[in-house]
């Protein structure tokens, strides 16, 4: 007698009950498996994006917001800090090195980050094509940016003020794509990187126009409306001419060609803005990534900065541990819910097998009469419970993998591909096996104790 084949036949004889038991197990396993994968992915993502950064210095506000905006590019910055004050932090003997971050613009939702070459070096980024930025308005884009926007090396584009696509367009200054990075698993995959000077150049010009607009608003609207409209059109035309001259001048300078008087004037204006921003004590950056010389420095610098400056210093590791602590309550709640679902599925197996045994008690007696031992009859019930539980585990694992593959297609979440079975999932398999075995133990013992003579005497 083949116990396995007979167990399958018994289960398929009642497809609805069998399907319900498998479904409950699969739902619980799917939830737990996805939680395991989310936890592992988030932990890897946090570790990769922190990349050894000891502290982040920025404007006072929420420390967690500062970390999310400057390290993970996932929140609005707390504000700007003075370049002069940032340089004081940089020259502190407890500081090994720093990386400046200047934010404020985006292109089609992807953040434009003003920084230094040390930033992509920190994440060990490699170029897929092109070269690294070497001058203002050069940009190197992440692989996701290139894929989603269609930008290629040599393309020109303008940034949008703010972090949404509906902001003010900086039409007067065009960025040039000089390189595209290889795909990676860190935040640079979705960034547009450029020198800090690019951000200063764009926003120095932007602030100048804001000042002009504010002065215009002081006039009577009725008298100045037509004049302002004419002025705006004229200024817009001048900006386009200036932008074309600057693009031509930068190209000729790079290729060591002679400039016309107009191009030379545009180029000198451009260099003047950069020099002014670089030497201007009022120049600002968004944040400073700090690498300390020792663990003592990591502990001391935040107190010194927070108490003696108008800036704050936050530890990425500390803030993210705090964040994971908050998220942990929700994650554990989902886990408990999934474990309960699996236990309920075990109770469903118990009820299903008990009812099946009661309805087929004569079949059990007949099997015994045909020579099946008590142990074989007992294993027949046990095998049905374990088949249901292991089948539910397998179905749950498959469903979780399918969801894992589909999620990046329907959301902004990015994951790695399908991986093997984890150690936690193997422990989950053991748990499911035990639940299935325990659920079928009662009907199995009942079948073992069945008095075949008494049952057959009723026929």
Automatic annotation (TrEMBL):
Organism: Maribellus comscasis
UniProt protein name: FtsX-like permease family protein
TM spans (from-to): 20-38, 336-355, 375-395, 428-448
Membrane topology: Multi-pass membrane protein
Signal peptide start and end residues: none
Subcellular location(s) of the protein: Cell membrane
Region entry Disordered, spans: 204-241
Domain MacB-like periplasmic core: 18-199
Organism placement in taxonomy: Bacteria, Pseudomonadati, Bacteroidota, Bacteroidia, Marinilabiliales
Residue stretches of biased makeup (Basic and acidic residues): 218-241
């Amino acid at each position: 007698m083949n116990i396995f084949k007979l167990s399958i036949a018994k289960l398929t004889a009642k497809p609805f009950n069998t399907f319900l038991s498998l479904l409950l197990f699969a739902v619980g396993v799917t939830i737990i498996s996805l939680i395991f994968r989310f936890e592992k992915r988030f932990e890897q993502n946090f570790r990769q994006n922190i990349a050894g950064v000891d502290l982040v210095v920025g404007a006072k506000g929420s420390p967690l917001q500062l970390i999310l905006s400057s390290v993970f590019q996932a929140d609005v910055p707390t504000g700007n800090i003075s370049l002069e004050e940032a340089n004081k932090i940089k020259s502190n003997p407890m500081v090994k090195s720093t990386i400046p971050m200047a934010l404020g613009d985006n292109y089609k939702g992807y953040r434009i980050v003003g920084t230094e070459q040390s930033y992509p070096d920190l994440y060990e980024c490699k170029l897929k094509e092109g070269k690294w930025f070497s001058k203002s308005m050069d940009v190197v884009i992440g692989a996701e940016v290139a894929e989603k926007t269609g930008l290629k090396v040599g393309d020109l584009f303008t940034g949008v003020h703010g972090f949404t696509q509906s902001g003010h367009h900086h039409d007067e200054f065009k960025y040039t794509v000089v390189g595209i990075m290889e795909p990676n698993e860190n935040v640079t995959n979705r960034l547009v990187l450029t020198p800090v000077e690019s951000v200063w150049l764009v926003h120095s010009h932007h602030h100048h126009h804001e000042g002009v607009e504010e002065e215009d608003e002081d006039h009577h609207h009725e008298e100045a409306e037509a004049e302002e409209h004419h002025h705006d059109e004229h200024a817009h035309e001048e900006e386009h001419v200036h932008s074309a001259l600057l693009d031509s001048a930068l190209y000729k300078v790079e290729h060591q060609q002679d400039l016309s008087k107009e191009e030379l004037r545009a180029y000198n204006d451009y260099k003047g803005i950069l020099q002014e921003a670089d030497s201007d004590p009022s120049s600002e950056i968004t944040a400073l990534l700090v690498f300390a010389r020792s663990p003592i420095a990591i502990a001391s610098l935040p107190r010194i900065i927070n108490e003696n400056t108008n800036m704050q210093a936050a530890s990425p590791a500390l803030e993210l541990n705090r964040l994971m602590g908050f998220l942990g309550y929700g994650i554990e709640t989902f886990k408990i819910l999934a474990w309960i679902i699996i236990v309920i599925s075990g109770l469903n197996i118990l009820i299903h097998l008990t009812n099946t045994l009661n309805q087929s008690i004569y079949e059990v007696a007949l099997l015994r009469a045909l020579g099946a031992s008590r142990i074989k009859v007992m294993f027949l019930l046990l095998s049905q419970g374990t088949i249901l539980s292991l089948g539910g585990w397998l179905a749950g694992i498959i469903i979780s993998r399918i969801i894992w593959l589909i999620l990046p297609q329907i959301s902004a979440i990015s994951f790695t591909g399908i991986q093997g079975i984890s150690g936690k999932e193997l422990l989950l398999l053991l748990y499911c096996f035990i639940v299935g075995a325990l659920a079928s133990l009662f009907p199995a013992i009942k079948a073992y104790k069945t008095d075949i003579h008494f049952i057959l005497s009723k026929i």
